[in-house]
Write a structure and sequence with these properties.
The chain has about 100 residues and is α/β, with parallel strands linked by helices. It has one domain: Hypothetical Protein Aq_1857, Chain: A, CATH 2.60.300.12. The protein is built from 2 helices and 7 strands, in the order βαββββαββ. The chain is globular, with a radius of gyration of 13 Å.
Length: about 100
């Protein structure tokens, strides 16, 4: 496991651990990545997934995090937070 290119905030770590411990996670690995690149640009994604051959594996606060090697340049320096407000809740990606 290498140095991680992303940062998970304490709130994000707490929510991810809660999902994993409650059995809501579909896999023991958290995947972070990008998709798209059309008119609206890149879309960031986060979810649980199985490990693939072209993945890099990182440990962030005891959470096994997967990322496609090709996505590294898009995610380098990214902070992932979890925000909960009246109208919405979810993970938020911020470039640092």
């Amino acid at each position: 496991m290498n140095n991680t290119p992303i940062l998970l905030t304490p709130t994000a770590i707490q929510v991810i651990r809660s999902l994993m411990e409650s059995g809501q996670a579909t896999s023991p690995f958290l995947r972070v990545g990008v998709k798209g690149g059309g008119c609206s640009g890149m879309a960031y994604m986060i979810g649980f997934d199985e490990q693939q051959q072209d993945d890099e594996l990182f440990d962030i606060a005891g959470i096994p995090v997967l990322m496609k090697k090709a996505h590294g340049m898009y995610l380098l320096g990214m902070e992932i937070d979890y925000q909960q407000e009246e109208a919405a809740q979810g993970f938020v990606f911020r470039k640092q």
